[in-house]
C-alpha cells in the first residue's frame, strides 16, 4: 500500500520551479482570457447581427428606437414578405438561406441609395428606420420604394422573383401630425 502522507508535494522546492509555475499559470490565464473574449464577441455578433443577412437584428433595432425616441422624429417601416412560401416552393426549401440572403441583398441595394437604416428582426421581417422625415417625404419615399420593388426582381440563380410585401408604417410620437 502506498503511503501518500510521506510523499513530498512541494513543487516549489527551488526558486526556478516557483517562477516556472507563475509564468505557466499566467500564460494559461492569458489563453483563457483570449478564448473568453473571442466567445463573448461571437455571442455579441450572434445577438446583434443576423447570421445570414449580416443585418442588425431586433436587439439593435430596439436600442436604436430607444435612442431616437429621446431626440428625433422618426418613422418605422415594417416589411413582411407575404409570398415567401410560394418562393420557397418554386426555388426549393433547401435553398432557403440563399433566398433570404438574396432578398437581404435586394433591400441593401435600396438602402445604399437612400438615407435609412435597415434591420432584419426575423428571417422574413425587415424594418427600416427613417430619421427626420415629414409625412409628405415619407409618402414620396414609399412611392420610390414601391417602384423599386415593382421594377426590380430578386434574382436567385437565373430565376426572377418578384416580392409581395406587406408594409406597415409607424410614426414616432414626436411628429405633430394628427392625420396619421
Outline of the structure:
The protein has five helices and six strands. With 180 residues, it is an alpha+beta fold.
Written account of the structure:
The structure is a single chain. This protein has 180 residues and is an alpha+beta fold. It is 50% helix and 19% strand. It is built from 5 helices and 6 strands. It has helices at residues 15-48, 58-71, 84-91, 96-112, 135-151, and strands at 74-81, 117-122, 125-131, 154-156, 159-161, 165-171. The strands form 2 sheets. It has a 4-stranded antiparallel β-sheet with strand order 2-3-1-6, with helices on both faces. The chain has a two-stranded antiparallel sheet with strand order 4-5. The protein starts with 14 loop residues before the first helix and ends in a 9-residue tail after the last strand.
Q: Order the strands across the largest sheet as they lie in space.
A: 2-3-1-6
Radius of gyration: 27 Å
Order of helices and strands: HHEHHEEHEEE
How many β-strand stretches?
Answer: 6
Total of helices? 5
Report the major sheet: 4 strands, antiparallel
**Gap from first CA to last CA:** 88 Å
Helix-residue proportion: 40-55%
**Assembly type:** single chain
Which spans have pLDDT < 50 for at least 5 consecutive residues?
none
* Sheet/helix structural class: alpha+beta
State which percent range the strand residues make up. Answer: 15-25%
Apparent shape = elongated
Amino acid at each position: 500500500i502506498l503511503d501518500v502522507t510521506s510523499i513530498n508535494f512541494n513543487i516549489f522546492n527551488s526558486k526556478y520551479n516557483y517562477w516556472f509555475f507563475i509564468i505557466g499559470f499566467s500564460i494559461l490565464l492569458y489563453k483563457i482570457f483570449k478564448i473568453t473574449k473571442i466567445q463573448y464577441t461571437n455571442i455579441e455578433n450572434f445577438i446583434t447581427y443576423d447570421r445570414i443577412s449580416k443585418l442588425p437584428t431586433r436587439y439593435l433595432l430596439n436600442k436604436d428606437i430607444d435612442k431616437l425616441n429621446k431626440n428625433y422624429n422618426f418613422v418605422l417601416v415594417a416589411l413582411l414578405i407575404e409570398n415567401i412560401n410560394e418562393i420557397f416552393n418554386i426555388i426549393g426549401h433547401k435553398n432557403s438561406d440563399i433566398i433570404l440572403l438574396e432578398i437581404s441583398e435586394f433591400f441593401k441595394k435600396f438602402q445604399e441609395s437612400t438615407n435609412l437604416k435597415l434591420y432584419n428582426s426575423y428571417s422574413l421581417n425587415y424594418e427600416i428606420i427613417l430619421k427626420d422625415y415629414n409625412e409628405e417625404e415619407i409618402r414620396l419615399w414609399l412611392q420610390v420604394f414601391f417602384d423599386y420593388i415593382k421594377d426590380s426582381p430578386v434574382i436567385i440563380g437565373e430565376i426572377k422573383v418578384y416580392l409581395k410585401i406587406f408594409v406597415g408604417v409607424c410614426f414616432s410620437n414626436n411628429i405633430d401630425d394628427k392625420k396619421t
